[in-house]
Amino acid sequence: MIDLPSMTPPIKRSVMIDGHRTSVSLEDAFWRGMAEAAQARGITRAQLIGQIDHARPPEVGLATALRLFVIAELRQQE
Hints:
78 residues, alpha+beta, 3 helices
């Protein structure tokens, strides 16, 4: 039997990137991971999302890039 963490459906939140409002849907665990990573860098979550948005390849969606970022952050902590 597998022990699963608490699961939530994706939560849609609005963020500003370069003065433009967009919305992103992520599960709560990823929103928390983004907040923790932003805090560790001394920036806001919106600023971190903007940085990730600018760094991602155009063929990768923003939500995917954010999830992959959080996973990479967790792996670096191992």
